[in-house]
Amino acid sequence: MFRNQYDTDVTTWSPAGRLFQVEYAMEAVKQGSAAIGLRSKTHVVLGCVNKANSELSSHQKKIFKVDDHIGVAIAGLTADGRVLSRYMRNECINYNFTYESPLPVGRLVVQLADKAQVCTQRSWKRPYGVGLLVAGLDESGAHLYYNCPSGNYFEYQAFAIGSRSQAAKTYLERRFENFTDSSRDDLVKDAITAIRETLQGETLKSSICTIAVVGIGEPFHILDQGTVQQIIDTFEIAAEQEGPAAEPDAAEQSAAAADQGGSTDEGVAPMDI
Amino acid sequence: MNFMASKQPENSLLGPEADSQRTLYPYVTGTSVVALKYKDGILMAADMGGSYGSTLRYKSVERMKSIGKHSLLGASGEISDFQEILRYLDELILYDNMWDDGNSLGPKEVHNYLTRVMYNRRNKFNPLWNSLVLGGVKNGQKYLGTVSMIGVNFEDNHVATGFGNHLARPILRQEWHENLSYEDGVRLLEKCMRVLLYRDRSAINKLQIAKITEEGTTISRPYSLKTYWEFSAFANPAQGAVGTW
């Protein structure tokens, strides 16, 4: 995308009928580290890649529990994601207090989308720079939704967002037809495999990924590292390829920088005349 | 300028509160509602009287209404407050339907919503002067609960409001059991309503019985109960107590 005279604020249309600020916000999602989700009839699994800035720091939290029956994985500006998670938790808790019943995930997703839309139509606001994969249950079973900064939302059988998500998407596209009837464990295995795809050869270990599950009869929870490592080992999912130690580090750093919102390579493209 | 505002002396310390209109006492009231769980759902009974103090002023008041697809609400107490509650619920169900997403509010959700409404009004010292009975069936699950005007709420296999608590509940405690047939349930409710008719001064002999099952709600046409007044003790009331009137 190139800079143009219609991209300064979100309340300016381009002649082609585009809102560039909104599209730029979607770019921010693509720069974040990968998050994937897949669902069967009864369970939904979320997974994400955790890249820490350096060996000294901890990694950013990208999967949030919203309620016993809803969880969310984010990609993009994690601060925006945290704020939206807080909003979602609030909505769930208020609904539960009034009706003593869990908020159907489909309704929460619409509320979230409407909230995002507001930011695309106010001159003093900016769109949220985060994509959310919302996993949850309602009366009709398990659901996976993707909420965009644009205010759109879509339901998916499986999806991946963030950097190098195309690799995961390709893997998921090959396998998604079987997901509806998958067992919970197979779903988790597929999620971990999809995460591996985004790592492009780097060794898959439980320290660089997070997996969370929600299902009918199973409240949303994040799997602990030990369990995840066990699954990786059991199914020998870890990539066989082993480059020299330097390579994985370099890959880690550039991806970590991406999380902060755009590496210096991207920069400002020449102005469109 | 509001000439109808309540008169306060100039040195009143009451401030803005004195102007507000709060419910202090009910005017047109309905008496007991009785309900029980049976094999296929919930049975609820209420008479059709609306009393204006000690006068039986209105005799065709429907005190039970169906709410959405899954619930049935019965009310005793101030009739105008019951109508207000129906308007709140109408709006609630409308918005629920507008989602059009396969999810719907069941009896449990409606009951809890009503509890919140009643309790919050009570906290503002402006209660909705009703005791409500909320019953329904959703996805095979039967639900029966009650909320009072101060927000006390609970669920049970059989509930009643007002005099029903004193006269009907003891009968139900003795004779209710799981999986009552429809006929047995109706018979049991009629037994309770008959006692209430004999002993509750605000009861009238014109009642409706409502049934809610997974399939839907039916509210019966109004009918009356047979009564018996030829008990020998009534023939000569002064027999055991000379001088009584």
Textual characterization of the structure:
The complex is a heterodimer of chains A (273) and B (245). Chain A has 273 residues and is of the alpha+beta class. In chain A, the strands form two sheets. Chain A has a five-stranded antiparallel β-sheet. In chain A, helix 4 packs antiparallel against helix 5. The longest helix of chain A is centred in the first third of the chain and has 22 residues. The two termini of chain A are 14 Å apart. Chain B has 245 residues and is of the alpha+beta class. In chain B, the strands form two sheets. In chain B, strands 1, 4, 5, 6, 7, 8, 9 and 10 form an eight-stranded antiparallel β-sheet that branches. Chains A and B meet through helix 2 and helix 3 of A and helix 2 of B.
Task: Describe, in short, the structure shown.
The complex is a heterodimer of chains A (273) and B (245). Chain A is α+β, with helices and mostly antiparallel strands and 273 residues long.
SSE string of chain A, helices as H and strands as E: HEEEEHHEEEEHHEEHH
Mean pLDDT of chain A: 88
DSSP strand (E) fraction of chain B? 25-35%
How many angstroms separate the termini of chain B? 57 Å
Tell me the strand percentage band of chain A.
15-25%
- Contiguous helical run count of chain B: 6
**What is the strand arrangement across the widest sheet of chain A?**
8-1-2-9-10
Helix content of chain A: 25-40%
Number of strands of chain A: 10
- The amount of helix of chain B comes to 25-40%
- Helix and strand sequence of chain B: EEEEEEEHHEEEEHHHEEH
Most residues in contact, chain pair and counts:
A-B, 12 and 12 residues
Structural class of chain B: alpha+beta
Helices of chain A, by number, come to 7
Rounded to the nearest angstrom, the radius of gyration of chain A is 19 Å
Mean pLDDT of chain B: 92
- CA-to-CA gap between the ends of chain A? 14 Å
Structural class of chain A: alpha+beta
Q: Over the alpha carbons, how many angstroms does the gyration radius of chain B reach?
A: 21 Å
| Main β sheet profile of chain B | 8 strands, antiparallel
